[in-house]
Sequence to fold (193 residues):
Amino acid sequence: MDKKEEILRAAETVFLKYGLAKCTMEDIAKACSVKKTALYYYFDSRDDIFVKMISNKLDEMMDELVSFVDKAKSTKEKIKSFMQKRIELVLNNKPFVEIFHDDGCLKILKEKRKKIIPNEFNIVSNIVEEGLAKGDIFADATKPVILMILGVTYGSLYANMEIGVEWDYKKQINSAVNIIFNGIGKKIEKECE
Fold:
């Protein structure tokens, strides 16, 4: 591991302990056993370290999500895989997610945050387009299916993180995917425009 990576790993511990607002370059320097001035050789500021650390974490999570989805074979399994892994990644990295939603972080990582939803939208769009090509999904339903998948995923996360609802998300995902594939009623009618 190079020195820059070592600093970023040490910074993770410090940011998780103190949060963005209270963390200092001195705290990070102590955690990685270097002088504070040495940090400036690798990074411009505390915010620079923070952005790089969080960006790396988000990139790791996105790579893990894509890899997990790619392993699934059918359209239905890919949808379940996306929803399940997305929720698990957030729940397993809850301290990072909480820092990511910190007010100070919102300003610092504004551009990075703007890319997350479109990236996830693209993942789901690709799954749906692939399902459309296979005949697993009907052409008229692609946009609503994408919105349902993302809605259930984000709604489940919101319920857990913000409201404290703890439910069996795997069971909820199975139910949601079954509704997406089977419809909510006995007969699916084309919506009038």
Q: What stands out?
A: Residues 75 and 134 are 8 Å apart (CA to CA). The mean pLDDT is 85. Residues 46-71 form the longest helix (26 residues).
